Amino acid sequence: NAGVMQNPRHLVRRRGQEARLRCSPMKGHSHVYWYRQLPEEGLKFMVYLQKENIIDESGMPKERFSAEFPKEGPSILRIQQVVRGDSAAYFCASSDRGQGYNEQFFGPGTRLTVL
Amino acid sequence: RKEVEQDPGPFNVPEGATVAFNCTYSNSASQSFFWYRQDCRKEPKLLMSVYSSGNEDGRFTAQLNRASQYISLLIRDSKLSDSATYLCVVIDNQGGKLIFGQGTELSVKP
Description:
The complex is a heterodimer. Chain A has strands spanning 5-7, 10-13, 19-24, 31-37, 43-50, 53-56, 65-68, 75-79, 88-95, 105-106, 110-114. By secondary structure, chain A is mainly beta. In chain A, strands 2, 4, 5, 6, 9, 10 and 11 form a seven-stranded mixed β-sheet that branches. By secondary structure, chain B is mainly beta. Chain B has no helices and eleven strands. In chain B, strands 2, 4, 5, 9, 10 and 11 form a six-stranded mixed β-sheet that branches. Chain B is globular, with a radius of gyration of 13 Å.
């Protein structure tokens, strides 16, 4: 049973370009969480999605960032017009339940570098 | 005040030492608590859950004090392989998102 997959593992973009990060949850998991870890900082929640629905986007920056989890295919975190401050590791996690106790299994992350 | 606060670290200890990490959380309604481990900023991995009654897993013991909103992790007989960053984590009651402390770095030396 494959774990959570993320691609690409490393992504380099120039300022102003778009970045698309993909996350395929574990088989049978319908809940996806995205977290960001800035250099020298802890992980911060960004957004929580279920299939075709955004449940909680309280951690998402107000502009340039969007996320989706379509009925078919991986979850996508999209960053438009990237800036140097977007350079970070982006982790996605999946679980089989939303509320309450639910172990979240993390993918290996995508390391975004903005030049 | 941060939602989850940890000892600043880093902790540098010799092999065989006992080391304790502390963590406090701000939301008294929080119900679920965990310690995660992160190696070299790779993906975090669940180390253990934390229960009010305390729980032990080999050399690792976790404790929760709800009255003080305080969580601890004790590592006995430290190994070189314990070197990592230890993350105190609280689950948000509403939607299940994880709230991470900033992490405490442990370095175990020979």
